[in-house]
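Bug #77: duplicate submission created two jobs. Keeping one. Sequence:
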Amino acid sequence: MILSKYLKIFPCDKDSDYLIIYSTRKASTIRIDREMYDDMRNGNLSDEETAMLTDLEILVDSPEAERIDLENYINERDGLSTTLRLTVVLTLDCNFDCSYCIEGNIKGKHDFSKESEDLLFKFIEKKFTKEMDTLRIDFYGGEPLLRKDMIRSISNKAILFTKNKGAKYTFSMVSNGSLLTKQTAEEFSELGFVGAQITLDGNREIHNKNRPFVNGSPSFDIVLKNIKESSEFCKITVNCNYTEENYINFLNLPEFLKDQGLGPDKINIIFSSVIDHTLDKTAKGLTNKISNTTPWMLAAESDFLAELFKFGYKIPEVVPSACMVERKNMFYIHYNGDIYKCPNFLNNPKFIIGNLRDGIKDYTKSHKLGIWKNEKCFDCEYLPLCFGGCRFFSLIRHGNIDELDCWKKYYDINLETLVKQELIEKGVI
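Kept job's structure:
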Protein backbone atom coordinates (compact mmCIF):
# COMPACT_ATOMS: atom_id res chain seq x y z
CA MET A 1 0.00 0.00 0.00
CA ILE A 2 1.16 3.54 -0.75
CA LEU A 3 0.01 7.07 0.04
CA SER A 4 -2.70 8.37 -2.24
CA LYS A 5 -1.74 11.10 -4.69
CA TYR A 6 -4.87 13.02 -3.69
CA LEU A 7 -3.90 14.16 -0.21
CA LYS A 8 -3.25 17.52 1.39
CA ILE A 9 -1.15 17.66 4.54
CA PHE A 10 -1.33 20.61 6.93
CA PRO A 11 0.33 21.35 10.27
CA CYS A 12 -2.22 21.05 13.07
CA ASP A 13 -1.04 24.37 14.46
CA LYS A 14 2.16 26.35 14.69
CA ASP A 15 3.89 24.43 17.49
CA SER A 16 2.17 21.05 17.32
CA ASP A 17 3.78 17.69 16.56
CA TYR A 18 0.52 16.69 14.88
CA LEU A 19 -0.44 16.83 11.22
CA ILE A 20 -3.82 16.98 9.52
CA ILE A 21 -4.19 14.76 6.47
CA TYR A 22 -7.15 15.43 4.20
CA SER A 23 -8.15 13.10 1.35
CA THR A 24 -9.69 14.98 -1.55
CA ARG A 25 -11.01 11.66 -2.88
CA LYS A 26 -12.93 10.64 0.22
CA ALA A 27 -13.31 14.01 1.98
CA SER A 28 -11.86 12.19 4.99
CA THR A 29 -9.63 13.86 7.55
CA ILE A 30 -7.31 12.43 10.19
CA ARG A 31 -5.04 13.99 12.78
CA ILE A 32 -1.83 12.05 13.42
CA ASP A 33 1.56 12.68 14.94
CA ARG A 34 4.63 13.01 12.75
CA GLU A 35 5.96 9.62 13.84
CA MET A 36 2.90 7.84 12.49
CA TYR A 37 3.17 9.88 9.29
CA ASP A 38 6.72 8.60 8.84
CA ASP A 39 5.42 5.05 9.40
CA MET A 40 2.77 5.63 6.71
CA ARG A 41 5.40 6.79 4.22
CA ASN A 42 7.75 3.90 5.03
CA GLY A 43 5.14 1.13 5.19
CA ASN A 44 5.62 0.43 8.90
CA LEU A 45 1.95 0.30 9.92
CA SER A 46 0.03 -2.44 11.68
CA ASP A 47 -2.62 -4.38 9.77
CA GLU A 48 -5.33 -2.54 11.69
CA GLU A 49 -3.86 0.87 10.89
CA THR A 50 -3.43 -0.09 7.23
CA ALA A 51 -7.06 -1.25 6.98
CA MET A 52 -8.34 1.97 8.55
CA LEU A 53 -6.28 4.25 6.30
CA THR A 54 -7.24 2.22 3.23
CA ASP A 55 -10.91 2.65 4.08
CA LEU A 56 -10.34 6.41 4.28
CA GLU A 57 -8.57 6.22 0.88
CA ILE A 58 -5.42 7.72 2.38
CA LEU A 59 -3.59 4.53 1.43
CA VAL A 60 -4.15 2.95 -2.00
CA ASP A 61 -2.98 -0.16 -3.82
CA SER A 62 -1.12 1.64 -6.60
CA PRO A 63 -1.17 4.85 -8.68
CA GLU A 64 -2.59 2.91 -11.62
CA ALA A 65 -5.50 1.51 -9.58
CA GLU A 66 -6.24 4.94 -8.10
CA ARG A 67 -6.37 6.52 -11.53
CA ILE A 68 -8.80 3.87 -12.81
CA ASP A 69 -11.01 4.47 -9.76
CA LEU A 70 -11.07 8.21 -10.47
CA GLU A 71 -11.84 7.71 -14.15
CA ASN A 72 -14.93 5.77 -13.12
CA TYR A 73 -15.83 7.89 -10.09
CA ILE A 74 -18.72 9.92 -11.54
CA ASN A 75 -20.34 6.95 -13.26
CA GLU A 76 -20.10 4.90 -10.08
CA ARG A 77 -21.55 7.73 -8.01
CA ASP A 78 -24.45 8.09 -10.45
CA GLY A 79 -24.95 4.34 -10.27
CA LEU A 80 -25.33 4.57 -6.51
CA SER A 81 -27.72 7.53 -6.68
CA THR A 82 -31.34 6.69 -5.94
CA THR A 83 -32.72 10.17 -6.68
CA LEU A 84 -34.03 11.67 -9.91
CA ARG A 85 -33.58 15.42 -9.51
CA LEU A 86 -35.33 17.86 -11.82
CA THR A 87 -35.51 21.64 -11.88
CA VAL A 88 -38.69 22.94 -13.49
CA VAL A 89 -38.96 26.55 -14.66
CA LEU A 90 -42.62 27.41 -14.07
CA THR A 91 -42.58 30.95 -15.43
CA LEU A 92 -40.33 33.78 -16.56
CA ASP A 93 -42.73 36.27 -14.98
CA CYS A 94 -41.70 38.00 -11.77
CA ASN A 95 -43.06 40.57 -9.31
CA PHE A 96 -39.57 41.97 -8.65
CA ASP A 97 -37.42 44.27 -10.77
CA CYS A 98 -33.93 43.21 -9.70
CA SER A 99 -31.02 45.25 -10.99
CA TYR A 100 -29.05 42.14 -11.97
CA CYS A 101 -31.87 39.91 -13.22
CA ILE A 102 -30.43 37.00 -15.20
CA GLU A 103 -33.41 36.93 -17.56
CA GLY A 104 -32.76 40.37 -18.98
CA ASN A 105 -35.19 41.30 -21.74
CA ILE A 106 -36.72 37.82 -22.04
CA LYS A 107 -38.53 38.15 -18.72
CA GLY A 108 -42.30 38.10 -19.04
CA LYS A 109 -45.43 35.99 -19.23
CA HIS A 110 -43.88 32.72 -20.37
CA ASP A 111 -45.45 29.87 -18.41
CA PHE A 112 -45.15 26.12 -18.04
CA SER A 113 -48.28 24.75 -19.69
CA LYS A 114 -50.63 21.86 -18.91
CA GLU A 115 -49.33 20.13 -22.03
CA SER A 116 -45.78 20.45 -20.71
CA GLU A 117 -46.95 19.06 -17.38
CA ASP A 118 -48.29 15.94 -19.09
CA LEU A 119 -45.05 15.55 -21.05
CA LEU A 120 -43.05 16.08 -17.86
CA PHE A 121 -44.58 13.00 -16.26
CA LYS A 122 -43.95 10.91 -19.36
CA PHE A 123 -40.31 12.02 -19.08
CA ILE A 124 -40.26 11.13 -15.37
CA GLU A 125 -41.71 7.71 -16.11
CA LYS A 126 -38.83 6.99 -18.49
CA LYS A 127 -36.08 8.33 -16.22
CA PHE A 128 -37.30 6.97 -12.87
CA THR A 129 -35.58 3.60 -12.86
CA LYS A 130 -36.47 0.71 -10.56
CA GLU A 131 -33.41 1.44 -8.37
CA MET A 132 -34.67 4.93 -7.51
CA ASP A 133 -36.51 5.76 -4.32
CA THR A 134 -36.83 9.57 -4.48
CA LEU A 135 -38.17 12.12 -6.94
CA ARG A 136 -36.96 15.64 -6.13
CA ILE A 137 -38.23 18.67 -8.03
CA ASP A 138 -36.85 22.18 -7.58
CA PHE A 139 -39.22 24.88 -8.82
CA TYR A 140 -37.58 27.86 -10.48
CA GLY A 141 -38.51 31.06 -12.28
CA GLY A 142 -38.98 34.01 -12.69
CA GLU A 143 -40.88 33.79 -9.48
CA PRO A 144 -42.26 30.24 -9.17
CA LEU A 145 -44.85 31.21 -6.56
CA LEU A 146 -46.71 33.17 -9.24
CA ARG A 147 -47.68 29.64 -10.38
CA LYS A 148 -48.88 28.11 -7.13
CA ASP A 149 -51.52 26.32 -9.15
CA MET A 150 -48.88 24.45 -11.13
CA ILE A 151 -46.85 23.63 -8.01
CA ARG A 152 -49.96 22.05 -6.48
CA SER A 153 -50.84 20.16 -9.66
CA ILE A 154 -47.34 18.79 -10.30
CA SER A 155 -46.87 17.88 -6.64
CA ASN A 156 -50.17 16.02 -6.36
CA LYS A 157 -49.33 13.99 -9.46
CA ALA A 158 -45.79 13.37 -8.19
CA ILE A 159 -47.09 12.13 -4.84
CA LEU A 160 -49.34 9.65 -6.59
CA PHE A 161 -46.58 8.59 -8.99
CA THR A 162 -44.01 7.94 -6.26
CA LYS A 163 -46.55 6.23 -3.99
CA ASN A 164 -47.25 3.73 -6.74
CA LYS A 165 -43.50 3.14 -7.05
CA GLY A 166 -42.95 2.72 -3.33
CA ALA A 167 -40.85 5.89 -3.41
CA LYS A 168 -41.12 9.41 -2.01
CA TYR A 169 -41.47 12.91 -3.45
CA THR A 170 -40.02 16.18 -2.14
CA PHE A 171 -39.78 19.63 -3.62
CA SER A 172 -38.01 22.90 -3.02
CA MET A 173 -37.86 26.23 -4.81
CA VAL A 174 -35.74 29.26 -5.58
CA SER A 175 -37.93 32.23 -4.69
CA ASN A 176 -37.62 35.95 -4.03
CA GLY A 177 -39.54 35.25 -0.81
CA SER A 178 -42.24 37.87 -1.20
CA LEU A 179 -45.02 35.31 -1.69
CA LEU A 180 -43.74 32.55 0.60
CA THR A 181 -46.09 33.37 3.45
CA LYS A 182 -46.65 31.23 6.52
CA GLN A 183 -49.95 30.00 5.05
CA THR A 184 -48.30 28.99 1.77
CA ALA A 185 -45.38 27.24 3.48
CA GLU A 186 -47.76 25.35 5.78
CA GLU A 187 -49.98 24.27 2.88
CA PHE A 188 -47.03 23.15 0.75
CA SER A 189 -45.44 21.24 3.63
CA GLU A 190 -48.31 18.77 3.22
CA LEU A 191 -47.26 18.26 -0.41
CA GLY A 192 -43.57 17.47 0.23
CA PHE A 193 -42.14 20.99 0.50
CA VAL A 194 -38.75 20.74 2.25
CA GLY A 195 -36.82 23.93 1.49
CA ALA A 196 -36.42 27.23 -0.30
CA GLN A 197 -33.56 29.43 -1.36
CA ILE A 198 -34.46 33.08 -0.81
CA THR A 199 -32.30 36.06 -1.63
CA LEU A 200 -31.67 38.78 0.96
CA ASP A 201 -29.11 41.20 -0.35
CA GLY A 202 -27.18 42.57 2.58
CA ASN A 203 -28.75 45.31 4.64
CA ARG A 204 -32.16 46.91 4.08
CA GLU A 205 -30.77 49.76 1.96
CA ILE A 206 -28.82 47.57 -0.48
CA HIS A 207 -31.60 44.99 -0.77
CA ASN A 208 -34.31 47.56 -1.47
CA LYS A 209 -32.11 49.23 -4.08
CA ASN A 210 -31.26 45.98 -5.87
CA ARG A 211 -34.49 44.02 -5.38
CA PRO A 212 -37.57 46.29 -5.40
CA PHE A 213 -41.05 45.23 -6.49
CA VAL A 214 -41.94 46.03 -10.08
CA ASN A 215 -43.80 49.13 -8.86
CA GLY A 216 -40.61 50.33 -7.15
CA SER A 217 -41.70 49.70 -3.58
CA PRO A 218 -39.23 48.15 -1.09
CA SER A 219 -39.27 44.41 -0.39
CA PHE A 220 -36.77 43.83 2.45
CA ASP A 221 -39.18 43.79 5.40
CA ILE A 222 -41.73 41.61 3.61
CA VAL A 223 -39.08 39.06 2.63
CA LEU A 224 -37.58 39.02 6.13
CA LYS A 225 -41.01 38.46 7.71
CA ASN A 226 -41.72 35.58 5.33
CA ILE A 227 -38.35 33.96 6.02
CA LYS A 228 -39.10 34.04 9.74
CA GLU A 229 -42.55 32.51 9.34
CA SER A 230 -41.86 29.97 6.59
CA SER A 231 -38.75 28.66 8.37
CA GLU A 232 -41.13 26.97 10.81
CA PHE A 233 -42.15 24.58 8.02
CA CYS A 234 -39.03 24.11 5.88
CA LYS A 235 -35.31 24.75 5.80
CA ILE A 236 -34.51 28.15 4.34
CA THR A 237 -31.22 28.97 2.63
CA VAL A 238 -30.65 32.72 2.56
CA ASN A 239 -28.64 33.65 -0.51
CA CYS A 240 -26.75 36.94 -0.55
CA ASN A 241 -25.68 38.32 -3.93
CA TYR A 242 -22.71 40.63 -3.48
CA THR A 243 -20.47 42.71 -5.73
CA GLU A 244 -16.96 44.08 -5.35
CA GLU A 245 -18.44 47.46 -4.43
CA ASN A 246 -20.85 46.32 -1.71
CA TYR A 247 -19.62 43.06 -0.16
CA ILE A 248 -18.26 44.83 2.94
CA ASN A 249 -21.85 45.74 3.79
CA PHE A 250 -22.85 42.06 3.81
CA LEU A 251 -20.50 41.07 6.62
CA ASN A 252 -22.90 41.87 9.46
CA LEU A 253 -25.75 39.85 7.94
CA PRO A 254 -25.11 36.62 9.92
CA GLU A 255 -25.21 38.56 13.20
CA PHE A 256 -28.31 40.48 12.11
CA LEU A 257 -30.19 37.34 11.10
CA LYS A 258 -29.28 35.53 14.31
CA ASP A 259 -30.55 38.53 16.31
CA GLN A 260 -33.79 38.24 14.33
CA GLY A 261 -34.30 34.70 15.60
CA LEU A 262 -32.98 33.13 12.41
CA GLY A 263 -30.07 31.17 13.82
CA PRO A 264 -28.29 28.12 12.36
CA ASP A 265 -31.15 25.85 13.50
CA LYS A 266 -33.54 27.73 11.20
CA ILE A 267 -31.54 28.79 8.16
CA ASN A 268 -28.36 28.34 6.17
CA ILE A 269 -26.56 31.31 4.63
CA ILE A 270 -24.64 31.35 1.37
CA PHE A 271 -22.86 34.21 -0.37
CA SER A 272 -22.74 34.46 -4.17
CA SER A 273 -21.01 36.99 -6.38
CA VAL A 274 -23.21 38.70 -8.93
CA ILE A 275 -22.41 37.40 -12.39
CA ASP A 276 -23.47 39.08 -15.60
CA HIS A 277 -25.44 36.42 -17.46
CA THR A 278 -26.29 38.72 -20.37
CA LEU A 279 -25.84 36.83 -23.60
CA ASP A 280 -24.20 38.45 -26.58
CA LYS A 281 -26.76 37.73 -29.28
CA THR A 282 -23.95 37.28 -31.79
CA ALA A 283 -23.01 34.16 -29.79
CA LYS A 284 -19.59 35.46 -28.78
CA GLY A 285 -20.12 34.35 -25.21
CA LEU A 286 -20.89 36.20 -22.00
CA THR A 287 -19.86 39.68 -21.01
CA ASN A 288 -18.46 39.10 -17.52
CA LYS A 289 -14.92 37.79 -17.13
CA ILE A 290 -14.95 36.58 -13.53
CA SER A 291 -12.43 34.29 -11.86
CA ASN A 292 -12.49 32.17 -8.71
CA THR A 293 -9.06 33.61 -7.89
CA THR A 294 -9.88 37.30 -8.31
CA PRO A 295 -8.22 38.91 -5.25
CA TRP A 296 -11.30 40.77 -4.05
CA MET A 297 -13.42 37.60 -4.32
CA LEU A 298 -10.90 35.61 -2.31
CA ALA A 299 -10.90 38.33 0.35
CA ALA A 300 -14.70 38.43 0.39
CA GLU A 301 -15.05 34.67 0.75
CA SER A 302 -12.52 34.57 3.56
CA ASP A 303 -14.41 37.30 5.43
CA PHE A 304 -17.79 35.64 4.86
CA LEU A 305 -16.55 32.26 6.11
CA ALA A 306 -15.19 33.91 9.25
CA GLU A 307 -18.54 35.57 9.97
CA LEU A 308 -20.52 32.37 9.36
CA PHE A 309 -18.20 30.48 11.67
CA LYS A 310 -18.35 33.14 14.38
CA PHE A 311 -22.13 32.91 14.63
CA GLY A 312 -22.41 29.15 14.25
CA TYR A 313 -23.76 28.90 10.70
CA LYS A 314 -22.89 25.96 8.52
CA ILE A 315 -19.62 26.29 6.64
CA PRO A 316 -19.63 24.91 3.06
CA GLU A 317 -18.29 21.37 3.10
CA VAL A 318 -15.29 20.52 0.97
CA VAL A 319 -16.32 17.26 -0.70
CA PRO A 320 -15.75 15.57 -4.07
CA SER A 321 -17.84 17.43 -6.60
CA ALA A 322 -18.32 17.43 -10.36
CA CYS A 323 -19.97 19.96 -12.65
CA MET A 324 -23.67 19.15 -12.84
CA VAL A 325 -23.45 18.58 -16.59
CA GLU A 326 -21.51 15.39 -15.76
CA ARG A 327 -24.25 14.03 -13.48
CA LYS A 328 -26.58 11.55 -15.13
CA ASN A 329 -29.80 12.05 -13.14
CA MET A 330 -30.05 15.85 -13.00
CA PHE A 331 -32.01 17.83 -15.60
CA TYR A 332 -33.40 21.34 -16.01
CA ILE A 333 -36.77 21.66 -17.70
CA HIS A 334 -37.51 25.06 -19.19
CA TYR A 335 -41.01 26.57 -19.29
CA ASN A 336 -41.33 25.58 -22.99
CA GLY A 337 -40.23 21.97 -22.44
CA ASP A 338 -36.62 22.39 -23.55
CA ILE A 339 -34.15 20.39 -21.47
CA TYR A 340 -30.78 21.63 -20.22
CA LYS A 341 -28.06 20.32 -17.92
CA CYS A 342 -27.35 23.59 -16.11
CA PRO A 343 -29.66 26.45 -15.05
CA ASN A 344 -27.04 28.98 -16.12
CA PHE A 345 -27.45 27.76 -19.70
CA LEU A 346 -31.21 28.39 -19.78
CA ASN A 347 -32.32 30.43 -22.83
CA ASN A 348 -29.06 29.65 -24.64
CA PRO A 349 -30.11 27.43 -27.57
CA LYS A 350 -26.54 26.17 -27.99
CA PHE A 351 -26.90 24.15 -24.78
CA ILE A 352 -30.33 22.59 -25.24
CA ILE A 353 -29.95 18.81 -24.93
CA GLY A 354 -33.50 17.90 -25.97
CA ASN A 355 -37.12 18.53 -25.08
CA LEU A 356 -39.95 16.81 -23.24
CA ARG A 357 -41.66 15.76 -26.45
CA ASP A 358 -38.73 14.19 -28.29
CA GLY A 359 -36.41 13.21 -25.45
CA ILE A 360 -32.70 13.80 -24.92
CA LYS A 361 -29.98 13.81 -27.55
CA ASP A 362 -26.35 12.88 -27.02
CA TYR A 363 -24.64 15.85 -25.34
CA THR A 364 -21.23 14.23 -24.78
CA LYS A 365 -19.42 16.55 -27.21
CA SER A 366 -21.54 19.68 -26.82
CA HIS A 367 -21.00 19.73 -23.05
CA LYS A 368 -17.44 18.39 -23.08
CA LEU A 369 -18.14 15.45 -20.81
CA GLY A 370 -14.92 14.08 -19.36
CA ILE A 371 -12.94 17.24 -20.09
CA TRP A 372 -11.00 16.50 -16.88
CA LYS A 373 -9.63 13.20 -18.20
CA ASN A 374 -6.20 14.59 -19.06
CA GLU A 375 -2.73 14.39 -17.57
CA LYS A 376 -2.81 17.88 -16.06
CA CYS A 377 -5.94 17.08 -14.03
CA PHE A 378 -4.88 13.55 -13.03
CA ASP A 379 -1.63 14.99 -11.67
CA CYS A 380 -3.48 17.56 -9.55
CA GLU A 381 -4.28 16.62 -5.95
CA TYR A 382 -7.49 18.67 -6.19
CA LEU A 383 -9.00 16.72 -9.10
CA PRO A 384 -11.70 15.01 -6.96
CA LEU A 385 -12.86 18.41 -5.68
CA CYS A 386 -13.52 19.96 -9.08
CA PHE A 387 -13.23 17.44 -11.95
CA GLY A 388 -12.24 20.23 -14.32
CA GLY A 389 -14.45 22.87 -12.74
CA CYS A 390 -17.65 24.57 -13.87
CA ARG A 391 -18.58 24.67 -17.56
CA PHE A 392 -20.46 27.92 -17.05
CA PHE A 393 -17.47 29.69 -15.49
CA SER A 394 -15.41 28.48 -18.44
CA LEU A 395 -18.03 29.95 -20.78
CA ILE A 396 -17.93 33.26 -18.93
CA ARG A 397 -14.18 33.61 -19.15
CA HIS A 398 -13.44 32.11 -22.55
CA GLY A 399 -16.67 32.39 -24.53
CA ASN A 400 -16.77 28.59 -24.85
CA ILE A 401 -16.54 25.51 -22.65
CA ASP A 402 -13.53 23.98 -24.36
CA GLU A 403 -11.12 24.96 -21.57
CA LEU A 404 -10.80 23.82 -17.97
CA ASP A 405 -12.14 25.92 -15.12
CA CYS A 406 -9.13 25.24 -12.91
CA TRP A 407 -9.55 25.64 -9.14
CA LYS A 408 -5.99 24.84 -8.10
CA LYS A 409 -5.06 28.37 -7.06
CA TYR A 410 -8.32 28.73 -5.15
CA TYR A 411 -7.75 25.55 -3.14
CA ASP A 412 -4.09 26.39 -2.59
CA ILE A 413 -5.30 29.51 -0.80
CA ASN A 414 -8.48 28.30 0.91
CA LEU A 415 -8.50 24.54 1.50
CA GLU A 416 -6.47 24.53 4.72
CA THR A 417 -8.80 27.10 6.28
CA LEU A 418 -11.93 25.22 5.20
CA VAL A 419 -10.67 21.87 6.51
CA LYS A 420 -9.54 23.31 9.82
CA GLN A 421 -12.77 25.23 10.37
CA GLU A 422 -14.71 22.00 9.97
CA LEU A 423 -12.44 20.28 12.52
CA ILE A 424 -12.89 23.16 14.96
CA GLU A 425 -16.67 22.86 14.56
CA LYS A 426 -16.42 19.18 15.48
CA GLY A 427 -14.15 19.87 18.43
CA VAL A 428 -11.22 17.93 16.98
CA ILE A 429 -8.82 20.90 17.12
